[in-house]
Amino acid sequence: MLTLLSRVHDGVTRAGFLLGGITLCGIVLCFWLEVIARYFFNSPTLWSSAMVAYLLCLSISLATPELARTHGHIAITVLPERLSPAARAAYDRLLALLTASVCAVAGWICLQESLRQLDNHTTTAMGLDIPKYWVSFFIAYALINAALYFLRHACSHATTPVAPEPSAPKDGTHAASSSVSVTDDNKGR
Known about the structure:
Layout: H1 2-40, H2 48-69, H3 78-82, H4 85-120, H5 133-159
């Protein structure tokens, strides 16, 4: 059952990612129409800049869960690379749980705000007025969906066996060191 849910979750995320790519095409189309209207017909549009802003928000919101699924986000790995395999697995698990918590709380707050906007019939204040929840629901989707992926990563790290670290031989000889010394080739330049 969990495998089926995971496949459905991944399928929805991939479909959203493709839709996010289509929204990028919509952004390009809006810019083209604006350029044509402004420079060839001397009649700039009032809606294109607002549409670009909405589509950009949708594009980012639809791409975020796929980045969380594939570990495509930016990571600073100075600390994790220096940890032992067991410590690195614990670090990755803790970081995934922390990130899932932050995304879930932010997603919950955004979902509550989206529902408030729906109840109050709040519209955007740009050149193209649309109901504000149309945009904010996508942000909530991105955060909650990313939280689910970080939670899945934390659980998958928890069940992944970590290879034991090599121990010293019992005969008193020293094992060859497998660590590599990194030198800075740019020193002295």
